[in-house]
Amino acid sequence: MSNIPSESRDLLEQAIYYPMLVKVLERDLIAVDKSPFKLPKPYKDWIEQTLIFVQKQLFSIKRELKRQGMKIHEVKRDELFTTYLFVYRGYEEYHSYFNPSIRNKVEELLAYHLYKRFDPE
């Protein structure tokens, strides 16, 4: 049984996904610079604006973690799983995540931040 409420655990999981999302966007910026696009500036601007937005989100996540007295540490990584230590108000819990599911979640967040957030559903 977890001592961490689900809302707080969601926030801790965002602290896993958002730094990875920043790395993906930074690598994509480099790829656009090296690519043979005829007009790379719109693509670069699009990725840069998304990166700025995601970095602001990550800043808010980190601020909220600190405000609630939570921390997250990567403990172990192998080909299939990554284990994190969640510290929540003095409680420590280890959580293992399947690496492909982390990748899928980061991909969902990337799609959301690149274009789905603009869809008027």
Automatic annotation (TrEMBL):
Species classification: Bacteria, Bacillati, Bacillota, Bacilli, Bacillales
Organism: Fervidibacillus halotolerans
Source organism superkingdom: Bacteria
InterPro entries attached to this UniProt entry: YhjD-like (IPR058600)
The protein's name: YhjD
